[in-house]
Amino acid sequence: VPNNAAGHRTLVSKLVIMAVAMFGFGFLLVPLYDVFCDITGIGGRTSSTAAVVDANEAPQIDRVLRIEFVASLNEYAPWEFEPEVTSMEIHPGQLYDMAYFARNLTGRQMVAQAVPSVAPGLAAKYLKKVECFCFTAQTFAPEEGRSMPVRFLVDPDLPEHIDRLTLSYTFFADQKVSQAAGPGSPDLAL
């Protein structure tokens, strides 16, 4: 019987070690995924800081890409949010300006943050934003609307087989502001 008890203790010890290892792996999965996406460009996430552009680099005039602009909100979000143009034809290496329009539809100050993504995901690392409203949270007065600029270029190293990009922004209300407004506020039901 003592031999059997030792076997049980060994089995329990192995199971506990395995459970701790699985928990640790699960805990590390998100940061590992973020690093993987940053390295490979998978996931369509763009940089959250301004890109530095070489002013001496000549654009590829002989190559034309189509970039489409998309805006999305939660179904009940208290915002109007849309691109001012829905698409553009561009040349890699050339700087372009466009803008999104947003309006606070509530009677109180609101703060929002835009989260960008690019499709196809592998093209995300080639879209360089020099200026973008997505870099910082945006504060809107009650019922204020305004144009928010995006200045960008597409790196000429974008693989040749990619001829169409989609730049999409999702506009989220800042949760701190939503919580400060109190529970049950119908215009903050995000």
| Arithmetic mean pLDDT | 81
pLDDT < 50 stretches = 181-190
- The run of helices and strands is HEEEEEEEEEH
Overall geometric form: flat
Biggest sheet, strands in spatial order? 3-1-9-5-7
Helix/strand-derived category reads alpha+beta
How many beta-strand runs?
Answer: 9
Strand content is 25-35%
Q: Give the N-terminus to C-terminus distance in angstroms.
A: 61 Å
How many alpha or pi helices? 2
Helicity range? 10-25%
Biggest sheet character:
5 strands, mixed
Q: Supply Rg.
A: 23 Å
Topology:
Blueprint: H1 2-40, E1 65-73, E2 79-83, E3 87-90, E4 96-104, E5 110-119, E6 127-132, E7 138-140, E8 145-154, E9 164-173, H2 175-181
List keywords for this structure.
5-stranded mixed beta sheet; flat; 190 residues
What would your notes on this structure say?
- It is built from 2 helices and 9 strands.
- The radius of gyration is 23 Å and the shape is flat.
- The relative contact order is 0.20.
- The C terminus is likely disordered.
- The strands form 2 sheets. Strands 3-1-9-5-7 form a 5-stranded mixed sheet. It has a 4-stranded antiparallel sheet with strand order 2-4-8-6, with no helix packed on it.
- It is of the alpha+beta class.
